[in-house]
Structures are given as C-alpha cells and as structure tokens.
Write a structure and sequence with these properties.
single chain, 136 residues, mainly beta, Jelly Rolls, 1 helix, 42% strand, globular
C-alpha cells in the first residue's frame, strides 16, 4: 500500500493510504506512532493464520486531539486539508479503496459521485455542536 504523508513543514496533517497493496508484506505495520491518540495499522495474514481470541484491557486514556479515518469504499471525493490558520496544505482525490487519516488542522470532503464511506474517530461523540469547529 502506498502511504503518503501530507505535511506542512515538519508537521503531518494527514496520512493517505492508497488502495495499491502490492508492496505490503506479511505482518502488522502501524502507520501511526505509538503515542498518537488513534492507532492505525495495516495487516496482512496468510491463509490459515489465526489471531487468538482476545480482548483489550480497560484503560483510562486522556485524549485531547481527535483523529478521523475516512475509508472510501465506493465513489469519488476531493479532500482539502488546511492548517490551523485556514491556509491550504493539500488537495487530494480519494478513489475507491483509499483511506485518509486526518491528524490535525481542518479538512473538507466534496463528493462528486454517490459514495459509500466508513468513518472512524475516537468517542464518545458529544454531538456536532460540541465536537466540531468550522472554518470561517
């Protein structure tokens, strides 16, 4: 899978994971750092591999920064990423199978075809009015 860091200077605003998985090898590869508030990994398992039944331990976590993952299953979208001062950082096009991880700054999505997305972010979700700040 092609992984593209969308940066301004040394600051990563998003990670783009393109559908092409030809370079991916067996095992687990974390695309986010261990200290990030959302852990995202790419995994490849050969036929017959078993992940033993398990659960994740309850643990208090203090999170001040929300990450958001958008996986485009079907359709097409133009994604615009901005820094904290509303300055453009990047414009990218998502195609089916692509995933983007928003890590900071502002972002918008414009769907130019009927689209199906999978969205993941930390919870609990307090509602739009308490969770989002829109660019002016």
């Amino acid at each position: 899978m092609q992984i593209v860091q969308i940066k301004k200077g040394d600051t990563i605003y998003a990670l783009l994971l393109r559908k092409d998985i030809s370079m991916f090898r067996a095992g687990v590869y974390f695309v986010t750092d261990p200290g990030d508030p959302l852990q995202v990994a790419l995994s490849y398992y050969e036929q017959g591999h078993i992940i033993k039944a398990h659960r994740h331990l309850d643990r208090n976590r203090y999170i001040t920064h929300t990450y958001e993952v958008i996986h485009l299953e079907e359709g097409s979208s133009v994604v615009r990423i901005f820094d904290e001062n509303y300055a453009p950082v990047s414009t990218i096009r998502l195609m089916p199978g692509d995933t983007v991880i928003f890590m900071r700054g502002y972002h918008s999505l414009e769907f130019d075809r009927n689209s199906i997305v999978i969205e993941v972010k930390q919870g609990p979700y307090p509602g739009k009015d308490q969770d989002k700040e829109y660019m002016s």
